[in-house]
Amino acid sequence: MRKSVLLIMLLFAVGMTANAQKFALIDTEYIMKNIPAAQSANEQMQEATKKYQGEVEVLAKTAQKMFQDYQAKSSTLSATQKTKKEDEIVAKEKEAAELKRKYFGPEGELAKMRDKLLTPIQDDIYEAVKAISQQHGYDMVVDRASAAGIIFANPRIDISDEILRRLGYSN
């Protein structure tokens, strides 16, 4: 009985070894840095971010100035005037918050720009990874840029340069 159990375990271990999985590693940050269109898209997004942030800051500063003026003059204002000023300040703060959401929210202008500019590039990278994985028989491809748990990986399993070549960007 013992010999049968040991034989089955040995066969199972040999079978697992024979079906060893192949892994590969990519670094999407490295790949994106070597694609000119991705660099251009990142620059456009940075410019838009600065522009949008500037607009939001102008409204926020206006609301802050209105509040400071209100505090300075509140002792001389009637209750009705105070309420009116407070409502104006709250409206300006809401306007700033709405503008911030419009630009930086999950469905804001920046997210739409990212989808328009970067999604096609990311899709191309995915298709290249998929093709190379099928060609070389990789069972799994891990992204070093998003896998914080990777402490060390042998550089020989990094296929980032192969992905770039497949996309037409030799390194």
UniProtKB/TrEMBL annotation:
GO CC annotation, single: cytosol
Key words, A-Z: Signal
GO terms, biological process: protein stabilization
Signal peptide: 1-20
Gene3D superfamilies linked to this entry: Skp domain
Domain of life according to the entry: Bacteria
InterPro entries, per database record: Chaperone_Skp (IPR005632), Skp_dom_sf (IPR024930)
Molecular function terms, GO-annotated: unfolded protein binding
Family named by the database record: Belongs to the Skp family.
The protein, known as: Chaperone protein Skp
